[in-house]
TrEMBL record:
This is Amidohydrolase-related domain-containing protein. The lineage of its organism: Bacteria, Bacillati, Actinomycetota, Actinomycetes, Mycobacteriales. It comes from Nocardia puris. The keyword Methyltransferase does not apply. SUPFAM superfamilies: Metallo-dependent hydrolases. PANTHER family: 2-AMINO-3-CARBOXYLMUCONATE-6-SEMIALDEHYDE DECARBOXYLASE, ISO-OROTATE DECARBOXYLASE (EUROFUNG). It holds the Pfam family Amidohydro_2. Gene3D superfamilies: Metal-dependent hydrolases. Residues 22-291 form the Amidohydrolase-related domain. InterPro entries: ACMSD, Amidohydro-rel, Metal_Hydrolase. GO terms for biological process: secondary metabolic process. The keyword Lyase applies.
Amino acid sequence: MIDDDNAYLTEFRTRLGLPGIIDVHTHFMPHQVLRKVWAYFDSAGPLVGREWPITYRADEQVRLETLRDFGVRAFTSLVYPHKPGMGAWLNEWTAEFAARTPDCLHTATFYPEPEAPGYVADAVAAGARVFKVHIQVGDFPPGDPLLDPVWGLLEDAGVPVLIHCGSGPATGRFTGPGPMDEVLRRFPRLRVIIAHMGTPEYSQFLDLAEKYEGVVLDTTMVWTDFSEADAPFPKHECPRVRDLGDKILFGSDFPNIPYTYGHAIEALERLDLGDDWLRAVTYDNAAGYFGLR
């Protein structure tokens, strides 16, 4: 294990000649919401299913300074509603957070409800760069008819959706590649970031990345010791991971990770897919994807 994350990450960036790290999967939320999320992890609730200590439980400013000290140049403020009536309010908070946090990619969210097309359009007009959807927590099918105008709007706007739709760490009623494939068949130009490489349905979500130009995947928690214990990545798929290297973005799940930040990078290095692959995944791909060059 890494003794000093800051030293390791500094050496990693220097060795690869990186200007920084871009992390597409980080969580910043209203305090009262994040407190409830942490309480759920502490209770090892059904969607968690195992002991899950929060390594970076701290005040917002401390968490921001921690990411920046790690060399993270850009990150997200992923939020997600679990019931109707939350989406517009969360989007107001993330817009304000992005306005006072220049290195945060303006993030928004939505839920299947009649109001969703209106507040999603408002968020796009306000400059949202990425939307977050969590199928397990929200407990809704991505193909819900109430979302048809939302998917169409985002497809036309070219704004990506980072979606937790794999069945890890616990299977939901609407998780798995099938429901997402149905949406993509109807909205084939949709830009989608599959969270956690689609854990544990890795192979099927790699299929979607090969099938649809707009589908990419994030590495969040994959290949770490924690995830390998419960949902090991199939080694025979590593050649496909290498070949799809331009469609894979680094994500961490900071601050809600049960290990140190450096381990997420170390896990990628252990794949031994080469420095060019590491540069692409930890910086270049996301820089191009979000126009950060």
